[in-house]
Amino acid sequence: MSDYELVKRFMSGERDAFVEIFVRYKKLVYNTVYNFMGDSPEVSDLFQEVFLRIYKSLARYNPEYQFSTWTMRITTNVCLDRLRQKRPEHASMDDIEEVGDDRLNPEGQYLARERAERIRRAVQELPEDYRIPVILFHQQGLSYEAMVEVLGQPMTIIKNRLYRARLMLRDRLGPDREEEASS
Fold first, then answer.
1. In a domain? residue 158
2. Is 146 among the domain residues?
3. Is this model's pTM higher than 0.70 or not?
4. Containing H/E element for 177?
5. Cα–Cα distance list, 60 to 70, 85, 107 (Å)
6. What CATH number corresponds to the domain at position 85?
7. Furthest-apart CA pair in the chain: how many Å?
8. Whole domain around residue 80: which residue ranges?
């Protein structure tokens, strides 16, 4: 059953249809909130807030857009609202990926974790306008088209910010890469 059919069922009074929507999107929403907020006690509160907003907004869902993109837009807006309230702090981002590779020796595992932590910190230090596209594109795997819908900005701006963010990351991580190469 399509997402839109679930929305129609929900709107016609079948409240169980929302349970199916929740099951389909809980992982995507949780991961997105976690990537924006890091290991913060607010993650579960924001996760619930996102689904509350989805629940209240289902009547306004436009089926010409993918439901996942619509959900990501709500999730991103909830996270951005909270981050703006906490302006002095930076958003945290979970490790770029699980670094522990069983094939690496302990030293290799340690170095891989250290590198992932440096990358995470570098992304966290990016200005918000550059950090958000990095999270959405590299962490959440959104396409440029989906990012246009989620962020409500032209594709040229999104591509430009992603390009500049990569340059900033390369500059910040450049000394680390040279240090690794000489080891």
1. no
2. no
3. no
4. helix 155-182
5. 10, 26, 53
6. 1.10.1740.10
7. 65
8. 1-92
H runs (alpha helix) in 91-154: 106-125, 128-134, 144-151
The pair of structure tokens assigned to 9 is 């069922």
pLDDT in tens, 18-64: 999 999 999 999 988 888 887 778 889 999 999 999 999 998 998 88
CA torsion sign, 131 to 154 to 56 to 22?
A: negative
pLDDT in tens, 73-85: 899 889 888 877 7
SS3 77: helix
pLDDT tens digits, residue range 125-160? 888 888 888 888 887 788 888 888 888 889 899 999
134, part of any domain: no
Total domain count, the chain: 1
What the block records as the tokens of 181 is: 């190469």
The amino acid occupying position 28 is L
